[in-house]
Structure formats: structure tokens, C-alpha cells
Amino acid sequence: MDTKLTLYFDREVINKAKAFAAANNISLSRLTEFLYHNITSGHYKILEELPVADWVNLIAEGEP
Q1: CA 25 to CA 19: how far, in whole Å?
Q2: Considering 21, 25, 33, 36, which has the largest number of Cβ atoms within 10 A of its Cβ?
Q3: Under DSSP, is residue 3 helix (H, G, I), strand (E, B) or coil?
Q4: How confident is the model at residue 49 (pLDDT cuts 50, 70, 90)?
Q5: pLDDT tens digit string along 20-35?
Q6: DSSP 8-state code for residue 62
Q7: pTM above threshold 0.90
């Protein structure tokens, strides 16, 4: 069952995420759900243990 969630992000991050989602034919909501699902499905004790793909690191650093 889907539930509404309101989040606040930097405008540039949102614009990049929307473009990424559109390029991959997925809604921003589903992309966010996918990322949260992957983060919470593992057995990670600290954030640094998360396996993060290179593209996520680039987005986090503000790279195109």
C-alpha cells in the first residue's frame, strides 16, 4: 500500500533526480522507494558500510 511522504531536498538535487528518473523511465517516487528499499534491506550498522554505486557518489558530490 502506498503512503504519502513529504520530503524537502535542495532544488538542484531534486532537478537532477527528476532528470535521472525520467531518463530511466521511472517516477521520482519509485526511484526514491527503490533507493530506500535497498538501503534498509541490508545489514548495515553504519552509513559508511552501504554499498554505493559510483553514480550515487557523483550525484552526492554535485557532479553531472
Answers
A1: 10
A2: 21
A3: coil
A4: confident
A5: 899 988 899 998 988 8
A6: T
A7: no
